[in-house]
Amino acid sequence: MAAFRLVSKCLKAENLSSAHFTIFKRLLNYSTVEYDEQRDPRPSFFNKDIQNLLRTLTRVDLHKVFRRRKLGDEKVRDPEYKFMTDEELQEALQKAQQKANSLLQIPPVVPARKPISKILSLDPELQGLETSKMVFTDITFGVKDSDRLIVVRQPDGTLCEAEWEVKNRINQIYFPQKGRSVKPPKMFQGTDFEDLLKRQEYEFILDCACIQFEPNDPDYQRITSITYQHINDNNGFDKLRSTRHFGALTFFLVWHKNIDNLLLELIETCYADEANSLIELYSKIKKVEFEKTNDLSMIEHYIKKCSNKKGALELALQAYKEMSHQKQNIEKGIKTAHGMS
Amino acid sequence: MAQLLNITKTLQKLTVSSRCRLVPVLVKPFEEDLPRTSIISTTATRNTNFFNKLPAQDLWKGITSVSNAGKKRGRGKNVSKSKIKDLNRGQVIGIGKANILWPGLSSPIIRGKELVEQQKLPEDPEREKKLIQLRDQMGTFKHAKLSPIERGWSGAKMPGRSIGPPDPIGEGEKFAGFDSVVLELKTVYNMKGNFGRKRRIKAVVVTGNKKGLVGFAMGRGLEARTALRKAKNRSGQKLMHIKLFRNHTVCHDFFTQFGSTKIYVSQKPEGFGLVCHRAIKSICDVVGIKDLHAKVEGSTNVNHIMKAFILGLIRQKSPEEVAEQKRLHLVEICKENNYFPNVIASPKECRTHEEIPKDEVLDWKQYCFDGKVVLRKKKPPPFYTRLKSYEVYLKKQEKLRNQDKVRINLLAEYGELRTFLADKYPECRAYKPPKKEEANDEAA
Fold first, then answer.
1. What single-letter DSSP state applies at residue B277?
2. Entry's Pfam families (chain A) (predicted)?
3. For A18-100, where are the E strands, in sequence order?
4. Does B60 reside within a domain?
5. Is residue A178 in a domain?
6. pLDDT per residue rounded down to tens, chain B (444 residues)
7. Strands B240-241 and B213-221, how do they pair?
8. What does the alpha-carbon distance between residue A138 and residue A149 come to, in Å, rounded to a whole number?
9. What are the beta bridge partners of residue B342?
10. Any chain B CB within 8 A of the CB of A64?
11. What is the pLDDT of residue A137?
12. C-beta atoms surrounding A97 within 10 Å
């Protein structure tokens, strides 16, 4: 049985519209980039191969995933010490790996939702019965927040489905989620957001956005897209490595054909394998074929065919080749010196 | 004639210092009145008394000292040499109560081309006050106030105070980065064959470089300063190395005992601080331990605490040694790391599960305290929790339980405290006291 509940009479639904976000649409010269339904990212994103590639590019370091964090206002705790045999240690490490896998689940990439304007019934005889809107909520146990039936009776007698903003608010009021507030906090707006970006607190922004918004929320996509662009421009990739957001960042960059900076960073830091994975990811998502004759051919081909930063990338690649060549020579020399060749 | 001689003798006896101004005044009339001797003989004044017979030094001694016999009986506890005042201080010959100009004494004889004449100037009322003030200041010397950081455990006492690094030996290297702390400074007596009770000062000092080196020593001397110096320098020559865990705490929990002083020491995470006896805290400061909890059971004699604690520190095993001894991995698990098994130390060869005997102690606390258990008394609830009024109080407080959070949220959202009616009725706002500058402007 569906239980309905009436929420306060004077819900200022119209105030809740995203009016206070419109000002910041062109923040820091970054424009909001949303995933839309015409080019649905879901089939590519949820593909197993692509998920695997995104995981590889995340470069998981367990010590960074499980780094020491401050836990709010709790007191510092004593660590627990244990004696372990080899097997017990391996088991514990395996469990930690599993935990890391679930912690590093990439937030889903889905198209932005569309505004709701569904009228359920028009009852002009109820006109003037109430001076304010009435919101009815289905609070049955076990219903998903996204499927919950929330309807609004307008003062003119129209019964329509609640808008997304109202739905979010009502859901948060009846079924509060930890860490989420009814109104989006100030950190996602204006100078506060700019300041966070300037301080390169990318992980904090993205974590908070994950808690506050649903992935199909236009606000979520606005915040994440601006953050991703800021990271790309300021070369802050290392800040997101070993976090759940690196996959989403890479997917965003590949989706919008903007991987040159990431590729350059990977080549400069001598991660040729990851650079290859990135190109593979690009070819899979963008359905472009690259020659695969030797180790670096795919990268070379990409630079020739699709890159916008040809000069810099070619130079970096050349430097990388020379360095690996020198490394090989040194290794060979060491081997001959040890009499192993 | 004989009378005249007497008079001159008495005049000679008068102390030169205080009455000398009177002499010429008195002498003149004698010369004039020589024939009329009868007047003088009738006014035989005795100008000698206790105070002008003895020099100031002896007078002061009389009131600021007690005979040896008297001292033994406990007399003269409130007298001391510091009470002696030099009454001549601030006084200049030729300048006195009556402000008279004496050419050749308090002023030059010739000023310009004129001869200066003796004359009386108006009295200076400040002079007497200044003299009294100067005398009051004497004998009331106060030590400079110590800053709270320099202070020891209690008041202006030495124990707990830092006295700097030990002196370099010969022309050798300096004790760079070292600091010493006084743990004890007290007077001790012993009996000598020919002197009797002999008083000396005993000092116990601990020194360290805050990186794991520590030494302690005792020194005796006739003065506190020499005792401290001896103890400090001796402690610099008895340095021991102590293992630290991540440069901030002890390697593991341990139990240690010296005499009847028992100490349970436990390792603590960074940021915990030093929660222990003040002597242990001082030692930790010089060793370089920043986080630790210690509970002292039994005697709290500072010497014993120091010895027990340093003994325990020396006996610590490093994590590598523990792992090698147990032939098992030593793993740290803590909530801040999301329960990640952090391997602290591994043995060269690890035992398997079958190789571990069933009765072996594997619990870390039990292993560290060697089977001893720290007595943790449960704190009884305070008396007022049983009162009816406390229940009432709790009920009244219930409605305020989230007030602080609401306050912060309102301040974050609106920048002020306001009710939900503030939109409709703008006057429904918390009163804001005007800023000081604005108030001043309005007043102007």
1. -
2. MRP-S22
3. 26-27, 30-31, 80-84
4. yes
5. yes
6. 455 555 555 555 543 444 444 444 444 444 454 555 445 556 667 788 888 888 888 888 888 888 888 888 888 777 777 778 888 888 888 888 888 989 889 888 888 888 988 888 888 889 989 999 988 888 777 777 888 888 999 988 999 999 999 999 888 889 999 999 999 999 999 999 998 999 999 999 999 999 999 999 999 999 999 999 999 999 999 999 999 999 999 999 999 999 999 999 999 999 999 999 999 999 999 999 999 999 999 999 999 999 999 999 999 999 999 999 999 999 999 999 999 999 999 999 999 999 999 999 999 999 999 989 888 889 999 999 999 999 999 999 999 999 999 999 889 888 888 888 888 888 877 788 888 776 566 555
7. antiparallel
8. 5
9. B332
10. no
11. 96
12. 12
Helix (H, G, I), strand (E, B) or coil at B401: coil
Q: With CB atoms and an 8 Å threshold, state whether A80 touches B364.
A: yes
For residues A34 and A41, what is the distance between their CA atoms, to the nearest angstrom? 11
pLDDT of amino acid A27: 52
Domain that holds residue A279: 257-341
Token digits of residue A77: 């705790």
* Nearest-CA distance B266 → chain A (Å): 10
**The domain boundary residue, chosen from A240, A255, A270:** A255
Number of domains in chain A: 3
Q: How many domains does chain B have?
A: 5
**pLDDT tens track for A241-250:** 999 999 999 9
Q: What residues in B contact A67, CB-CB < 8 Å?
A: 337
* 3-state secondary structure at position B332: strand
Residues of the domain holding B18: 2-66
Answer whether residue A263 is part of any domain: yes
* B118: DSSP letter: P
Separation between Cα atoms, residue A34 and residue A224, nearest integer Å: 9
User: Is B354 at the interface with chain A, CB within 8 A?
Assistant: no
Q: Are A109 and A138 in contact (CB under 8 A)?
A: no
**CA dihedral angle for residue B46, residue B48, residue B49, residue B51, rounded to 10 degrees:** 150
Structure-token match 């602080």, residue found: B404
Which residues in A lie closer than 8 A to residue B331 (C-beta atoms)? Answer: 81-84, 89, 92
ipTM of the complex: 0.81
My answer on whether A248 and A265 are in the same domain is: no
| Contact of B397 with B403, CB cutoff 8 Å | no
Question: Which residues in chain A have Cβ-Cβ distances shorter than 8 Å to B352?
Answer: 85-87
Q: Tell me the residue type at B130.
A: K
Do A190 and A325 share a structural domain? no
Which residue of chain A is at minimal alpha-carbon distance from B338? A66
Ramachandran bin of B194, using left for φ above 0, alpha for ψ from -120 to 50, beta for the remaining angles:
alpha
CA distances from A75 to A78, B266, B413 (A): 10, 17, 28
A251 lies in some domain: yes
- Residue-level pLDDT at B9: 55
Q: Which two tokens stand for residue A340?
A: 């192993």
Report d(CA B105, CA B91) in Å as an integer.
14
